[in-house]
Amino acid sequence: MKEVKTMKTEPAKLDDKKRRLELPKTNDQELGPLKLLPGKWANVPNLPGRGWNMIALPFVAPPPQGVPFPLNYRLLLHQYNEELEFTLVDKAVPNRGIRLAPGAPANTDQFLVALDYQQRIRQIAGDDFPKSGLAGSPQDVIHHEPGLWLHMVNGITDSLNIGRLATIPHGDSVLALGRSSEHSGTQSIPDLSGLPIGVDQDLNNPYLAPYKHFNDNLFQGLFNPVSPNDLLEAANQGVEVERTTVLDVDSTHPTGGVVNIPFIVRQANATVMKSTFWIQELKEKDKQGKPKLRLQYSQLVMLDFFPRVDGLPPGCCPGPIQWPHVSINTLEKVC
Questions:
Q1: Which of 105, 239, 253, 314 is deepest in the core (most CB within 10 A)?
Q2: How far apart, in whole angstroms, are the C-alpha atoms of residue 302 and residue 321?
Q3: pLDDT tops 50 at residue 264
Q4: Those residues with Cβ within 8 angstroms of residue 57's Cβ, 6 or more apart along the chain or in another chain
C-alpha cells in the first residue's frame, strides 16, 4: 500500500519582520506544499503537444447529417503547448485579526505564502463539430491567465490550506480553495466525463452528435472528449515516480466562487471551477543529481446554457444544461 501523507503545518510564529520578498527557489521548505512550483514548466522540448482542451460553445449552424434538429452549439477541441511560470510574491502576507472572547483579547493574525503564476497557451491544432471555420490555426495564442497560488500557513478553516485565484481575459474571476497532500509513488488519475449534465447521455442521442463524432474519430488520433483524463493516465505509463504532491482546489467550497461579466452570465455562464495538480518527483535525476520534476493537471469549468433536455419531470432538476470545459496537460520543469 502506498504511503499517504496529508500535509500539516505547525502554527506560524511570524510577523512583518519575517516577510520575504526574494527570488524563488525550488524546494524551499518555507513555501509548504507549493515548494516545488517556483520556476518555469513547459511542454517543449521533451513533452510537446501534451495539452488538450475541450469546450462546448453556443453556435448557430445547420444540423449535422442525420440529426433532425439544429443543435445550436459546437464542440471545440484544441491540442496545445503551454508555458506555466511561478514566481514568489511573499512568504508571509499578513491578514489581521483579533479574538475578543473567551478571555482577554488577543491578536490572531494569519500569514499566507503567495506565488504569482502566468499561464500562456499556444495552439498546435484545432477542430470542431459542427464545422464553423473558427477552430483557429497552428501557433495561435489561445489563452493567457495571470493568477496566484496561496498557502494558508496558519488560521486554517476546515483543513483548507491552499487556494488559487485566477483572472481570465474573457471576463471571469475565480477563487478556488482546497487541500494539499503528499503520496509515495504515482497517483491514479480519476476518470472524468466530458458529457453535459442535463442531457440523456447515450451517445446515440442525436443531441450529442458532436461528442459521438469525436468519440468515433479521436481528435489528432488521440483525444476523446467523452473521457478527457485518459491521456493523463497514459502519460504516466513507464514513468517511475518517487513522490507526488497533490494540490486540489474547488470553487464550490464555502467563500469560493466564479464571477463573470454580464455577457458571459447571459450566454454561457461559468459557474464552477475545479482543478487538481499532480507534482511528480521522478526517480530519474537531472544534471545536478536532483529528481526531475513533472506537473500534470486536470481542470474542469462548468458552463451553463440552454434548458435541460433530458426529459425529467418539470421541477425535478431545475436549471440549465451544464457543459464541461476540460483542460489537461503534462509538463516538465525546465528552469
A1: 253
A2: 10
A3: yes
A4: 73, 74, 76, 268
Cell of 33: 506544499
Per residue in 303-328, pLDDT tens?
999 999 887 666 677 789 999 999 99
Environment class of 280 (CB within 10 Å of its CB; exposed 0-12, middle 13-18, buried 19+): buried
Which residues 6+ apart lie within 8 Å of 156 measured at CB? 9
Q: Which fold has domain 4-8+26-333?
A: Lipocalin (2.40.128)
Question: Residue 34 in 3-state DSSP?
Answer: helix
**102 φ, ψ to 5°?**
-80, 165
- Indicate the burial class of 79 (C-beta count within 10 angstroms; 0-12, 13-18, 19 or more): buried
Cis ω on the peptide bond leading into residue 24 (within 30° of 0)? no
Please state whether the peptide bond connecting residue 130 to the residue before it is cis, i.e. omega within 30 degrees of 0. Answer: yes
Collapsing DSSP states into helix, strand and coil, what is residue 59?
A: coil
Count of Cβ atoms closer than 10 Å to residue 127 Cβ: 19
The beta strand positions in 69-140, using DSSP E, are 73-95, 98-99, 106-107, 110-129
